[in-house]
Amino acid sequence: MSAPAEMNDQIVDELKSREDTNGLVRLDRTEFTSGCRLATVGGAMLGHFGLYQGMGRKDRCRVLYEIFGTARIVDVPMEYLRLAV
Length: 85
Fold this sequence. Notes:
Elements: H1 9-17, E1 37-40, E2 49-55, E3 60-67, E4 70-77, E5 81-83
Antiparallel strand pairs: 1-2, 1-5, 2-3, 3-4
């Protein structure tokens, strides 16, 4: 059985300073705003454009795509998305 890893007190203090009133650390995702147009640069939706709908699970963004004439929301890894110009 292994013991918990030791962590520098500075790192712990930095993380604690980011907590909200509920003790949660919110990740800063200000690059994308609701409804902004995104270009997909990797994965199964490579080359498609969609609209940002918010954050999904595990660092994935919920993106609204039109696929075969039907609107579908797909969870896409953040690293596969860029703001469309």
